[in-house]
Write a structure and sequence with these properties.
alpha/beta, 97 residues, single chain, 5 strands, 3 helices
Length: 97
């Protein structure tokens, strides 16, 4: 693959924890989700990391409400709020949701 080929990719990572967020690290996967997006972004690729808020991560980190997603779970209609975390020292190629 050439540099031009990789520049157009957008990689989405979903994890239960995220060491890049205040209060978001519990175990080892939090370290991986903190460090791996940085390494990927250094290759000029866009990365979006999606981590559940668990009702508090969006409050503990500077976050902007950007929308909601309606879905069905166990036969009931549910709504999930979607927040974008502010860039805090991470690469400009990384978006934290």
């Amino acid at each position: 693959m050439t540099k031009t080929d990789t520049a157009s990719r957008h990689i989405v990572m979903v994890a239960a924890e995220n060491g890049a967020l205040k209060g978001g690290k519990v175990g080892g996967i939090g370290d991986v989700i903190r460090d791996l997006p940085l390494a990927v972004a250094r290759r000029d690729e866009r990365v979006t990391v999606i981590t559940p808020s668990y009702g508090s991560l969006h409050l503990d980190n500077e976050a902007e409400h950007i929308g909601s997603i309606d879905y069905s779970f166990a036969g009931a209609a549910e709504t999930a709020a979607l927040y974008r975390m502010a860039q805090t020292g991470s690469s400009p190629g990384i978006t934290q949701l």
